[in-house]
Amino acid sequence: MTHRAIVAPLRWGLRENLPQFLLLVAVNALVGATLGQERTVLPLLATEEFGLDHYSGALTYILAFGLAKAGANYLAGTLSDRHGRKPVLVAGWVLALPVPVLLILAPTWGWVVAANVLLGISQGLTWSTTVVMKMDLVGPHRRGTAMGLNEAAGYLGVAGTAIATGYLAEVYGLRPAPFLLGAAFITLGLGLSVLLVRETRDHARHEPGGAEAPDRESRSDREVFVLTSFRDRSLSSISQAGLVNNLNDGLAWGLFPVLFATAGLPLGQVGVLTAVYPAVWGAAQLVTGALSDRWGRKGLIVTGMLTQALALVLIAAGSNFPSWLGAMALLGLGTAMVYPTLLAGIGDVAHPLWRARAVGVYRLWRDGGFAIGALVAGITADALGLEAAVIIVAALTAASGVLVALRMRRNDHLPTPSLHTPGGT
């Protein structure tokens, strides 16, 4: 007598895949926490231990991180379509293992830059893959809710670790205590990914509406890149908004702690200000992601970009802890309107057969904003001062919101057949 293995039928939906979905939420919280080990400490390490007085020199680690993460995002989409999601996720965690060691032992700034190259590659592979896996599981509905939960977990992880490392740095010094916490997060994330995370690629391959007309919807890597970057009105609008959003996030990461510290704020308050932005950003996404499923993507993206621009102006004009606290919270709220909505918008337009690659292209452009932000902010701050750098980035953010208002289609979030046939050049 032969026995056939019973294979459970694939199911789509948040509730239907809740245990695995929540596991991936936890994994992405650890991905964010791994990044959060640097947010408060590294800008101060640059000035206090390595004597990097020029802003453009201190921001080299963000430039390295942004370029590495942007490239890894693109590779993550391509590799996860070809080889599966889980191997890419595990590889990302393995690459993160040396990062805390390099940061603790670094005798020169070059070691810190090298650590951030590894961290960027790791973040690109792990974060991109958790995004794609959640899209696979939830199917064509409730993408905004899924992305809100994913991004909330990641950025609450960033915020919580930024506060914790600020405290550890104040009590025990800038090294090694803050980075030992990062090492613990990396070890836990790798263990969960290897032992408990399941592959989700088949969910995308057999998604309702996704397997139909495969010859028509099968696209080369070049076609996906051109569609997502330039040709499709909605995809290209989303890509440029993501780039500008992370441009101002690079500014917040690299220069704001220095701005607050040079104003005379104690390290504990600098840690709070550094953390409140990703904390509001993370928590508010639990609401904004779901709202984008009901209201549509475009309005939230435009409003969020303009809100960020206003917050940056208020930060440039601020001079004390209370004023900066309110402005940083407003910046987090504006970012929360944009971040999960952009990701959900990519999932709306891209066909399941090339959705992972489209997400990779979008995240290539988005995280390229870190590198551009480091260059723009560093050079401008050296030449004109911190406040001028913040104002210039605020103007770019407002212009990005206007471009989305003029170019992006309005109803791509609706589950219609047109969602699989992008165009609208």
Please give a structural write-up.
The protein has 19 helices and no strands. It has 425 residues and is mainly α. α13 packs across α18 (355-384) and α16 (298-317) packs antiparallel against α19 (386-407). It holds the Pfam family MFS_1. Its main location: membrane.
Briefly say what this structure is.
The chain has 425 residues and is mainly alpha-helical.
Number of domains: 1
Structural class: mainly alpha
Shape: globular
Q: At the first level of CATH, what is the class?
A: Mainly Alpha
The name of the CATH superfamily reads MFS general substrate transporter like domains
> What integer is the average pLDDT?
85
SSE string = HHHHHHHHHHHHHHHHHHH
Low-pLDDT sequence parts: 1-7, 210-216, 414-425
CATH architecture: Up-down Bundle
Total strands: 0
Content of β-strand = under 5%
Question: Which characteristics define this entry?
Answer:
425 residues, mainly alpha, Growth Hormone, Chain: A, 19 helices, globular, disordered N terminus, disordered C terminus
What secondary-structure arrangement, pairings included, does this model have?
Elements: H1 18-39, H2 41-48, H3 55-58, H4 60-83, H5 85-96, H6 99-105, H7 109-138, H8 143-172, H9 177-195, H10 201-205, H11 214-217, H12 221-231, H13 233-254, H14 256-262, H15 267-295, H16 298-317, H17 321-349, H18 355-384, H19 386-407
Helix pairs in contact: 1-7, 1-8, 1-9, 4-5, 4-7, 4-18, 5-7, 5-9, 6-7, 6-9, 7-8, 7-18, 8-9, 8-15, 8-17, 12-13, 12-18, 13-17, 13-18, 13-19, 14-15, 15-17, 16-17, 16-19, 17-18, 18-19
Organism: Brachybacterium fresconis
Transmembrane segments: 21-38, 58-76, 88-105, 111-132, 153-173, 179-197, 299-318, 324-343, 364-381, 387-406
Domain Major facilitator superfamily (MFS) profile: 20-412
